[in-house]
Design brief:
The chain is an alpha/beta fold. The chain has two domains: 2-234, 3-Layer(aba) Sandwich (Rossmann fold); 249-366, 3-Layer(aba) Sandwich (Rossmann fold). 28% of the residues lie in helices and 20% in strands. The protein contains eleven helices and 16 strands. The protein has an eight-stranded mixed beta sheet, sandwiched between helices. It is globular and about 60 Å long. The two termini are 33 Å apart.
Amino acid sequence: MLRHLARSVSAAALAALVSLAAAPALHAADNERPRVAILATGGTIAGVQAHPGAAAYKPGVLTLDHLLAQLPGLDQVARLEGEQVANIASQDITAELWLRLARRAAAHLADPAVSGVVITHGTDTMEESAWLLRLVLRSEKPVVLTGAMLPATHPQADGPVNLRSAVAVAASPAARGYGPLLLLNGELHPARDVRKTATEAIDTFQSPNDLPVGAASPAGPSFSVSASSIRPAPGGGFDLAALDADALPRVVIVAAHGDADGSVVDALLALPAERRPAGIVLAGVGNGNASAPLLAALERASSAGIVVVRSSRTGRGLVDRNLEVDDDRLGWIAARALSPQKARILLVLGLTRTRDLAELQRLFDEA
């Protein structure tokens, strides 16, 4: 991460870093300041280096109280209430934790006194959490996910400016209606399009099929597109109260690559019926394609009742129906704009509602 720092910090983030210590109080009087709930889940923003100067670090060590103690004056921006939902590295997130986080966010958003919610999160699965929240939260209030690429003990840690900026965005009425936003490096990205694109760079989060919707600093957000341009949640969203982590359909991702023989899919088919996945998302080459043996194995899977969705590993563009693969004949679904990991989440939730392939395709078309 360290070698990428200088070349990858955006102009917006540099301006935010300069203004961090002297950020103005946006709301002076207690009765004027908005109320913002902060839900902490761990990640690099709460990480600690193995020793001073070390590249290695452990995420999810520091608590939210510690993070807030490093940001004097933040309570002048908003009245804060905090909650430590978890303290993990985000690669360890589970369906149970996703739903717990969503329910805690929904509870705060339902409070008329709360203006918005900030979620601190590890960057590895932040885009997935943002998408899951987009599908299950119904509030117009701002929800801002943020984190860091450098641990809290690093002298150039990016977490403090990201967290201060996230609170300013969540407190701003201008951020209403955009759905969950991901904030890092001074940029605001919508939940559907954003992807982590680099292992270490500070500007790792990009929206390859679009641009960021705005910029953020400790002084607040500046939006370049209107909230009305953001797609609504497909299918009108999903009923959070009806979702049970233990009962969610199992969906796995299978990657296409050169010399793929389909053995992974056949191994899944060999499992006892009660352990087989309900769905498979193909992380395909190009336009969601794969080798002939892998396609044949996926055809066997769909014949056995497993729902197959084709997505692309390329990172940009759409996967359309029937271009290189005969989806109509095979009964497969095209993921359209969704990455494999976001396609997986939509299929999991979609399968709680229907197994009708046309209805499932409609969800992906609307995403």
